[in-house]
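Thanks for the sequence, V.! I ran CRP/FNR family transcriptional regulator, anaerobic regulatory protein right away. Repeating your input here for the record:
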Amino acid sequence: MTDTYICTLSRDDYESFIKRNPHVALKLIDILSARLNDLYSLSEKIALSDVKHRLLYLLLMLTQKTGRRKHNWQTIEMKLTRQEMANMIGTTRETTSAIMSQLKKEGFIRKVRHLSIDADKAEEFLRSSEN
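Predicted structure:
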């Protein structure tokens, strides 16, 4: 977790600020475009992939957004339940738990303090299965 400050602005103040600071508007467009691209990629994976691929893809995305890397292991520094992960990839909690166990046995993930994924191995697996 990191410290966060929240600032509230009225709509008029926000629009005025954006007009005076176009570089902020461009940065917001960049952020929103990246989020839209991530959502598009995830929805494509959900529609076209099996649960193992969807789950590995989700875990990689989460590590890239919130994780820390140590060698080839990247941690997910947020707490997620199996149900929350299942909801994100369009499957059941039971299926997610079964696939998580399979991924652990296959050496893709481990849990010490936080859930970690072998990012290099997962990326290679996802790349090889696209062909």
